[in-house]
Amino acid sequence: MARRPTIADVARHAGVSRTSVSFALNDRPGIAEETKERILAAAAELGWTPSRPARALSLGKAGAFGLVLARDPDQIGADLFFPAFIAGVEVALGERGDGLMVHLTTPEREESVYERLAADRRVDGVLLTDLRHEDPRPALTHRLGLPAVVVGQSEWSDGLTSVGLDDRPAYVAAVRRLAELGHRRIAHVEGPQEFRHAHRRRSAWEETLGDLGLPPGPVLPGGFTAEGGARATRELLSLAEPPTAIVYGNDLAATAGLSVAQELGVPVPERLSVVGYDDNPLTRYTHPPLSSARADARGWGEAAAQALDRVLAGEEVAHVVLPPAEFIPRASIGPAPRP
Amino acid sequence: MARRPTIADVARHAGVSRTSVSFALNDRPGIAEETKERILAAAAELGWTPSRPARALSLGKAGAFGLVLARDPDQIGADLFFPAFIAGVEVALGERGDGLMVHLTTPEREESVYERLAADRRVDGVLLTDLRHEDPRPALTHRLGLPAVVVGQSEWSDGLTSVGLDDRPAYVAAVRRLAELGHRRIAHVEGPQEFRHAHRRRSAWEETLGDLGLPPGPVLPGGFTAEGGARATRELLSLAEPPTAIVYGNDLAATAGLSVAQELGVPVPERLSVVGYDDNPLTRYTHPPLSSARADARGWGEAAAQALDRVLAGEEVAHVVLPPAEFIPRASIGPAPRP
DNA sequence: CCCGTCCCGCAAACCGGTTTAGTGAGCGCC
DNA sequence: GGCGCTCACTAAACCGGTTTGCGGGACGGG
Questions:
Q1: Closest C1' nucleotide to A18's CA
Q2: Is the CB of A29 under 7 A from strand C?
Q3: How are strands ordered across the β-sheet holding B273-275?
Q4: A85 touches chain B (CB under 8 A)
Q5: Which class is domain A64-165+296-324?
Q6: Please, what are the averages of pLDDT over each run of 10 residues along chain B (339 residues)?
Q7: Distance from the Cα of residue A57 to its chain's centroid
Q8: Which residues are in the HTH lacI-type domain (chains A, B) (predicted)?
C-alpha cells in the first residue's frame, strides 16, 4: 500500500510551503482565502489528515484522556455505570477528535498505571472515579503533574476540581418513603466502605433514620455483588426480628436479595420491601419490579470530560454539581406488614 | 513544576550522546555494559521515561490498539463481556506499556470512527467485535490500511485473522440436555439477527432440534435486552401450546424471562425450563439459579490482542481457536412437565 | 611495525507536524 | 519618491525520540 501522504505532499501539491498548509488547516490568519481553499482542496484530494503522534509531539498534548478502573473485572461488569459514563466522555471528546485510553487493572497495580500514564505523556489528564477514603490518587496525580478531575463530591477532591452527582437525595427519599409506609426496621446492605460513595450511601441511610427518630436497622456488607447481596439478605431474613425493608447499595445486590427473599418464601413487598440503586435496565423487569435510583451517568461523563478540558486550558474551574440521583419507586416497596 | 527531563538531559547527565541513551534503553548492542549501567542510573535518577508521542513519531507506531463499540450504551452495559474482554486485552498490552483506545459510538457513526482512527494514526490496529452480516468493517479496515483482527469465527473474518471462541457447543449441549429431560417444545428468544453470534446461537438451537428429530419451537426476538426478553416470554407463555423450555440469547433476557414466568404463576423449572448465556454473576443468585454458558471473555481479549500483535509484526497468523463456551446447568432446568 | 577488525560511541538526519522570525510585494501617505 | 505598514507567505528551528553512517582506539596477527 502507498505511503500515507504527509504535510509536505500536500504543500507540494498545492504549490505552497508546509507552514501555509499548517496555517490553513488550523484557521490561522495570514493565509489568503483563495490560497486556503486551494490547500484544503489539495488535502482533501490526497486524503490527508495530520498525524496525531506528530501533532502530539509538537503541541506537547496527547489529545487523549485516561480512565483507570481498578476494580476486579467481575465487579466492573456488574453495573452499567461505566459504559454510560464512557459514552458521555466520548461525546465531549469526539468533537475534537480526541480519545479515551481505558486501563483496566487491579487495585494493587493501580498506582503504577497512573505513574506510567504520566511518564509516558500518553494522556493529557485523567478522570478519577470510585474514590476511596484516604485515596492516594489526588496527591499522586498532583505529584506526577498529571492533571486530573475527581468524579464525585467536592469534599473528596483534595484540591482537585470535582464533578459531582449526589446520590444522597435518592437514599434519603427512599428511606423517608419507607418510613411513610410504616416501616420501622429498615436494614442496609452496604457496598465496600472504603469507597466514598458506598460510605456516603450508608451515611444517608443512617442519618435519615436518625432524622426520622428511627433506630438504625442492621447493616451488613454486600460488596456491591450478587453473592454479597444474597448472603446478606439470607442473614437478615433469618434474624429473630427481621427487617421489613432493605435498602441495598446497588441493583445487583438488590436483585440477588429479591431472589433470596423469594426462595425463603418471604413475599415482596408484602413482608419485605426492597430498594436498589443504579436503575439497571433489568430492575424494571424483575419480579416485582425493583425500586431503584436513577443517575445520569452519561451526562456525568460528558461534564467530567468538559471540566478536564477546562482545567487543561488553565482555567480556574469551580466544582461542578449535576442534578442529583432520583429515587424511582416501583412495586418492590409497599406498606409495612402488620406485626 | 519543572519541565520533564528529555533524552538530552539524561545524555548530559551521564556524559554520553543521545544516541547512546537510546541504544542503552532499547538494549541494542554497541554499548559497553558499564556505560549502559551509568546511563540507566542517570535515567532513573532524573525519573526519565521516553515520551510516547515522540517514540510513536519516530517509530511510526502508535503503541495502542483501538476498540470501537457501536452498540447503544444501554446494551453495552448489559453484559459483562466487554469489561472482561478489555481486561484481557490489557493483560497482553500492559507488558509492553501499550494501551487501548476505547470508542463508544452509535451504529450510524461507526464507520467514520474507524476512518478517523486510521487517518489519525493514533492506533496501530483494531479489534473488531460484534460482527454483523455483510459487516462493512473487514473491507473498510482493509481499504483504510488499518490492521485488524476479527473477534469471532473465522468464517466471518473476510480474509482477516480471526480469534474465535465458539458459543455453539454450549447451545447444542443445552438443547440436547433439555431433550433428554423430555422437552419437546423448546423455544428460542433470539438476539438481533444482524449480529453473527446471535444468528449462530439461533442456528445452533435450530439445527440441534433438527438433529434430534424435534420440531423447531417458536422463535421470538429478545434483542438481548431485559425488555425484549420479558416481552417475548410473556408472548410465548400465552400461546395455546406454550413451550416447556426457553433458550435465550443471553442472560439478561433470560433473567427478565424468569421474572415474567414467575409473575404469570408459571413455576420454574416445574412447568418451564430456562437457559441463558454469558454466565453473568447474577445468574447464580436468581431464583431459581439460571442455567447458562460460560465463555472465557478475558482469555479471549488476551488472545485477540496477541493475535493483533503478531499481525502487526508481519507474521502470517492462522485463525486462533479458543476452547468453546461451556453449558452450565443449574436449577432453572428440569424434567418436562407431564402433559 | 603495520594493517585489518572489532568494539564503542557520536554527529547528523529523520519521523510529521507547529511556530518563530523573517522576506518581499503592494499600498497609502506626506 | 521614500518611508512605513500591512498582508501573504516561507525558511528554518523545534518537539523528543530513533537510526544511519562514520570515526577513533585497542587489539591481534603476520
A1: D10
A2: no
A3: B219-221, B186-190, B245-248, B273-275
A4: no
A5: alpha beta
A6: 85 95 93 94 95 95 95 67 90 89 91 93 96 96 95 95 97 98 97 96 97 95 94 97 97 95 96 95 93 95 96 92 98 93
A7: 30
A8: 5-59
CATH number for A168-294 (one of 3.30.720.200, 3.40.109.10, 3.40.50.2300, 3.30.930.10): it is 3.40.50.2300
Kindly determine whether residue B260 and residue A285, on different chains, have CB atoms separated by under 8 Å. yes
Indicate the helix (H) or strand (E) that contains A220.
strand A219-221
Which DSSP string corresponds to A96-152? TT-EEEEEE--GGGHHHHHHHHHHHT--SEEEE-S-BTT-SHHHHHHHHT--EEEES
Residue type, A28: R
Dihedral pair phi/psi, residue A106, rounded to 5°: -95, 155
Cβ of A58 less than 7 A from strand C: yes
Q: Which amino acid is at B186?
A: I
The DSSP bridge pattern shows strands B161-165 and B148-151 to be parallel
- Please indicate if any CB of chain B lies within 8 Å of the CB of A54: yes
In sequence order, the 6+-apart residues with CB closer than 8 A to the CB of B249 are B188, B189, B190, B191, B198, B201, B202, B222, B224, B277
What is residue B16's three-state secondary structure? coil
CB pairs under 8 A between A and B: 190
B64-165+297-324 CATH pick, 3.30.505.10, 3.40.1030.10, 3.40.1280.10, 3.40.50.2300 = 3.40.50.2300
Higher-confidence residue: A75 or A125? Answer: A125
**pLDDT tens figures, A127-149:** 999 999 999 999 999 999 999 99
What's chain B's length in residues?
339
What superfamily does domain B7-50 belong to in CATH?
Answer: lambda repressor-like DNA-binding domains (1.10.260.40)
CB contact under 8 A, A104 and B121: no
B285 grid coordinates = 443468585
In the three-class reduction of DSSP (H, G, I as helix; E, B as strand; rest coil), residue A195 is classed as strand
